[in-house]
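Notes continue from the previous slide.

Worked example: a multi-chain complex. Inputs as given:
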Amino acid sequence: MLNFQLYNPTNYLFGKGQIAKLPELIPANTKVLLTYGGGSIKKNGIYDQVMTALKGYEIVEFSGIEPNPKYETLMKAVEIIREQKIGFVLAVGGGSVIDGTKFISAAVNCETEPSDILHRTAEVGKNTIPFGTVLTLPATGSEMNSGGVVTILATQEKLSFGSPELFPQFSICDPEVIISLPRRQLENGVVDAYMHVLEQYMTTKHDALLQDRIAEGVLQTLIEIGPSVVENPSDYTLASNFMWSCTMALNGLLNKGVPVDWSTHMIGHELTALYNIDHARTLAIVAPSLYTVMFETKKDKLAQYGRRVFDLQGTDESVAREAIVKTEEFFQKMGMKTKLSENTENYDDTAKFVADRFTERGWTGLGEAKNIGVDQVKEILEMSY
Amino acid sequence: MLNFQLYNPTNYLFGKGQIAKLPELIPANTKVLLTYGGGSIKKNGIYDQVMTALKGYEIVEFSGIEPNPKYETLMKAVEIIREQKIGFVLAVGGGSVIDGTKFISAAVNCETEPSDILHRTAEVGKNTIPFGTVLTLPATGSEMNSGGVVTILATQEKLSFGSPELFPQFSICDPEVIISLPRRQLENGVVDAYMHVLEQYMTTKHDALLQDRIAEGVLQTLIEIGPSVVENPSDYTLASNFMWSCTMALNGLLNKGVPVDWSTHMIGHELTALYNIDHARTLAIVAPSLYTVMFETKKDKLAQYGRRVFDLQGTDESVAREAIVKTEEFFQKMGMKTKLSENTENYDDTAKFVADRFTERGWTGLGEAKNIGVDQVKEILEMSY
């Protein structure tokens, strides 16, 4: 098992009616910036619940944080905080709003251009603006981790950032919020969480036995509830297991003591940047090909996964191959179209284009074994057409 | 799934060589009280590692915290802290030393008699003394939770306490420390952790699907590595999975959203108080009888456990019965003697004596379904003779 540090101070409140606890969580007499997205929270009643709970607080609203949040948008919120002496930011939304709010929190007191945080030329300092979240869309785990992804429109770059200073102070997760979500977002949430687990699990084999068991438990739960929760989001058993699985998939527990991959995400991000394909859908496109191209590296783990998660039997080789098929079938069952050609037109140059981007950035040697080079990226993407 | 709050700010550092990080974790110029037990840390080299790391700190030592730590002993440390302006307590030991240190931390600024904390007539205030831990004996999970158990010698009471103020600021967990542990302590550690999981799992059936999967993963890991780790504690794969499983068994994750039992512990504590039987061994004595007596309540979950953890097949009834047998066999494989008569003489009046104690305290209705009364406690203990 690899050495690790587990530190996660987020106060995570899960269940029905938890939004009413907001006044216990945000200091009184604090001026609050309420960040949210396109306004769906006004239709589904969550905005009203939050405003009722926050009665007595001075609140400034900042709406319009878009999916794949944009640097240019977020910097407007940064200006508001600087000008209006905001003391606390409350993100009400899904992964994009929460990721965006993390960046806002980090950027306000950044001594250089805040885009430096994304380019990793500036560190996130200790003087971030405190923030909490009310989760409205389970998927990314951002409500209980300290990282995020932001897109710079000007340069079409989708870049990740993170810091131990960027854990939400609290996150309120009420599974009932999923009732009003569009089916497509629920499908995306299940697949996003599933792939978060696989990125931390489908690696070279290692000896962190418990971590594998926990990862398999999240995968099994998502397989068990995923297809049903998109049909019946008002079923609380399904909704609660879905929401909690999404958090556990990426709250910093599964990667402890193990090697991690994340190359599916890195390639997938490029497809979102190029074609604006939903994040989860890019992962469903890339992963089956990636596991096929990197088969020799991942074969042992694919076989373990096939046996434990899908109850497959046979040789390591055959179970590992079948496990990839089963994974793609699960994605399809979750409404994903797993080929690039089913998601966009004019995809012919994708492999070359993405490979060139990776070359520009010097990204050779991706994946847990650092053996996914530009040639492999091309091969993976061509197989995904 | 039940509503829950997950909050655990302990900074958990796991792996080889982590003790050297102590100076990054304890503020400079702080006077440190070093708490430990009977002095085994001086034989196995851990004391030297700690003292080397803490070079430059002013250190006061407090040794002699015994297994099942005694209130009377701990109050001596409380006096030292009050008199010598100690700013930080570093517990170097197993569950007893860490539990004792938590109580010390809570007692120093307690405004009434600190035993009130144990009798739950005083709350733990915010002005606790900060403390961290270096774990030397995996078992109790105390290194990453906020509770403990202390025995009052004068009244022969073994009482639990806890507070969100009593999380260790950090815990250093280096699996290599187990190399020098006596076999009996390793056996106890595995069974203790296993029973911690079962207390939070072997309940009435519920719909927190992921929590069950995680619990089963810890059980499977302990079954996989338990018998070997007592034979080969210098095997790092075994040691690291053992230590991490012990923490995960009781760091406040498994009980989220689920009903919990804990009656095996409550009955077991009485056996330790009466006969000084090792804590883990009392659990191995009580649990099989408890699951047999409470069979109807726990049958569904016993059957799930039998199928998923022991791969048993058959009807719910037969798998559930066999799962109890398999559990007792696992305890025996771990060196436990699972009958009271194998652990002490003159046990004839135990059932009546313990039942009377429970009656005195008004402890009727134990367990997740609140259906373990005094009659059941008697029946369980008589079955354990």
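Summary box: Chain B has two domains: 11-176, 183-384. Chain B touches chain A at residues 1-18, 175, 207-210, 213-214, 216-218, 220-221, 224-225, 236-237, 240-241, 244-245, 248, 256-257 (CB under 8 Å).
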